[in-house]
Amino acid sequence: MSLVNLAHCCSHLQNASHARLGLTSIPSTNLLHTLMLQLQKSGYITSVAIGGPTPPPPSSLNPVLDPSADTSSSSPSSNDDQPAITQSNVASRRLWVGLKYWNNEPVLLKMGMVSKPTRRVWLGFRDIEALARGDRSGYVKGLRGIGESMYLTTDRGIMELREAVERRTGGMLLCRVNGV
User: Could you tell me if 16 and 136 are in contact, meaning their C-beta atoms sit under 8 angstroms apart?
Assistant: First the structure.
């Protein structure tokens, strides 16, 4: 897991939302893909699609999040649009992220790292519970504002801080997101 790529992604998404871009791309890694799906679930971005160096067609930027939806009824040509991932094209794979705006203001206002490549922040369940209440845990400030989220990686995957409290699990803090 490269936190350097995550740091670049955080600054890129923040800059792209301030520049009022509708669609932007970031490198395709499993960590970033899972985090983008969590950001979509939380309502900070509209869509996530895996593609190549050129943007995918608008029909593949589906903002529907329901994983239980039956996708077998879709046309079989939808998978033919994307070439198979091979050793020669794996480096050119990109995640195309649709940014969200509300009343002409970006929903994703600020996105920054909590754990850094040189200092990873691992917290147990009690510390994460304190952060969710708004209390400070070590040098990490708690959640204070409306629309503020913090994401962490656990042995059960990447999840939002409040979800980790519900599941009673700890992990490494990744990033903090401030929204509208």
Answer: no
- As to burial, measured by CB atoms within 10 angstroms (0-12 exposed, 13-18 middle, 19+ buried), residue 32 is buried
pLDDT tens, residue by residue, 94-139: 999 999 999 999 999 999 999 999 999 999 999 999 999 999 998 8
pTM: 0.84
Contacts of 108 (CB under 8 A, 6+ apart): 13, 14, 17, 39, 44, 45, 99, 100, 177, 179
Q: How is 2-39 classified by DSSP, letter by letter? A: -HHHHHHHHHHHHHHHHTT-SEEEEE--HHHHHHHHHH
* CA 94 – CA 5 distance, rounded (Å): 13
